[in-house]
């Protein structure tokens, strides 16, 4: 086992860290205050070549590994959790789906433009009655000649309304008892007649990230925009979520790192009873626990990314990373608020926002409860296999 980053990964980490600190972080609070989508951040990520870095060069990427990808998201989230999730959805949910499951024509039509930032991507799976139970989606896609006609509603779609291209999952078989076997994926472009969006949701956190409902009313999609074979949509969704969960784990690590940074800074500057509060055991022990859990979350995340690079099955390890990192983010942002005391409760201080942003990492792209379900099912399979 090698726990050191490669020289290339260290150079990338430092470059993204400096960029995020100097350009992303100063704009983050104002974007969130105005609930304004951070287009400037997205454009700068494109200009610097950070979009879709994990894709091969022929599709506009750099062929980098998944650990490097996790590093980028972590550093972005350390500066701005909103920018990190926009990046994650665009790269690992949307672009990766087209790269892994698209035809060569689909890859060449979309991926270079997605990598250059000319297009913004989104991923539309969740529905009002189908969140954790993704196989229960009701959006329908009926084949009519050389087209599919889509009808239904999606909710909680990150980049909704602002994205140019959507990966949409719909049921192509009328028998609901088929559940996941009757689901197909489609590439749907913004501007297609019948495709519309609700207003941005008013959320607890990530205020600058646009999260909307997506409505499909007789939306006609050409057969060549079907992603993968008919009926294989659920497998595509689950495979892509494995990759997305690495990104959310990395986002959680970045949020936790930011909270730790703020707590350490305050604890060394704030004096009570004649000394910095970091010298009081009550605060020192909190910081010790924060540092330990932060490092554990980071190592779990990097390990999951490393296993993804090796091409080995790692759904359990990805779920562990996403579960632990998101739980740590929630715990440690709460602790950061506590360390800052009354100041931590004020909007002027960043830890208040970090605590609200951390919460969603326990929910989207698979709740903590779903991660525990995934892990426990794999444990049972491993036990059964060991018993023969």
CATH architecture of the largest domain: Up-down Bundle
Q: Which parts are unreliable, with pLDDT below 50 for 5 consecutive residues or more?
A: none
Strand order of the largest sheet: 1-4-5-8
| Count of strand segments | 10
Chain-averaged pLDDT = 96
CATH C-level class of the largest domain is Mainly Alpha
Q: What oligomeric assembly is this protein in?
A: single chain
As for the number of domains, it is 3
The whole-angstrom Rg is 21 Å
CATH topology of the largest domain: Butyryl-CoA Dehydrogenase, subunit A, domain 3
Q: Into which percentage range does the β-strand content fall?
A: 5-15%
Distance between the termini: 29 Å
What would CATH call the homologous superfamily of the largest domain?
Butyryl-CoA Dehydrogenase, subunit A, domain 3
Description:
With 388 residues, the protein is of the alpha+beta class. The protein folds into three domains: 7-120, Orthogonal Bundle (Butyryl-Coa Dehydrogenase, subunit A, domain 1); 122-232, Butyryl-CoA Dehydrogenase, subunit A, domain 2 (Beta Barrel); 235-386, Butyryl-CoA Dehydrogenase, subunit A, domain 3. 53% of the residues lie in helices and 14% in strands. The chain has helices spanning 7-34, 39-47, 66-79, 81-101, 104-115, 233-269, 281-310, 315-340, 350-360, 368-386; strands at residues 121-124, 140-144, 147-158, 165-171, 183-189, 195-197, 211-222, 226-227, 271-272, 275-276. Strands 1-4-5-8 form a four-stranded mixed beta sheet. Strands 2-3-7-6 form a four-stranded antiparallel beta sheet, with helices on one face. A two-stranded antiparallel ribbon has the order 9-10. Strand 2 (140-144) and strand 3 (147-158) form a beta hairpin. It is globular, with a radius of gyration of 21 Å. The two termini are 29 Å apart.
């Amino acid at each position: 086992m090698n726990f050191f980053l490669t020289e290339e990964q260290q150079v990338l980490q430092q470059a993204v860290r400096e960029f995020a600190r100097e350009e992303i972080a100063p704009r983050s609070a104002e974007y969130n205050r105005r609930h304004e989508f951070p287009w400037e951040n997205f454009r700068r990520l494109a200009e610097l070549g950070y979009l879709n870095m994990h894709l091969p060069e022929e599709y506009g990427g750099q062929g980098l590994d998944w650990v490097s990808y996790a590093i980028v998201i972590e550093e972005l989230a350390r500066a701005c959790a909103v920018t990190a999730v926009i990046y994650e959805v665009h790269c690992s949910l949307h672009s990766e789906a087209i790269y892994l499951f698209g035809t060569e024509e689909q890859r060449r039509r979309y991926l270079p433009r997605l990598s250059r930032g000319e297009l913004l991507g989104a991923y539309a799976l969740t529905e009002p009655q189908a969140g954790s139970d993704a196989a229960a989606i009701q959006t329908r896609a009926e084949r009519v000649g050389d087209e599919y006609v889509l009808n239904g509603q999606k909710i909680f779609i990150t980049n909704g309304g602002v994205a140019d291209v959507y990966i949409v999952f719909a049921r192509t078989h009328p028998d609901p008892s088929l559940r996941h076997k009757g689901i197909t994926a489609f590439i749907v472009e913004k501007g297609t007649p019948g495709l519309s969006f609700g207003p941005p949701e008013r959320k607890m956190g990530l205020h600058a990230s646009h999260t909307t409902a997506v409505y499909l009313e007789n939306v006609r999609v050409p057969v060549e925009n079907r992603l993968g074979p008919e009926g294989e949509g659920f497998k595509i969704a689950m495979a892509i979520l494995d990759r997305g969960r690495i990104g959310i784990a990395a986002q959680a690590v970045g949020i936790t790192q930011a909270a730790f940074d703020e707590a350490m800074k305050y604890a060394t500057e704030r004096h009570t009873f004649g000394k910095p509060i970091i010298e009081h055991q009550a605060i020192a022990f909190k910081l010790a626990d924060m540092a330990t859990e932060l490092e554990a979350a980071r190592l779990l995340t990097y390990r999951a990314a490393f296993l993804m690079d090796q091409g080995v099955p790692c759904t359990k390890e990805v779920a562990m990373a996403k579960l632990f990192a998101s739980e740590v983010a929630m715990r440690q942002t709460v602790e950061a608020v506590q360390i800052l005391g009354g100041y931590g409760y004020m909007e002027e201080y960043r830890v208040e926002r970090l605590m609200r942003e951390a919460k969603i990492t326990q929910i989207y792209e698979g709740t903590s409860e779903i991660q525990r379900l995934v892990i426990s099912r794999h444990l049972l399979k491993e036990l059964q296999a060991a018993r023969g």
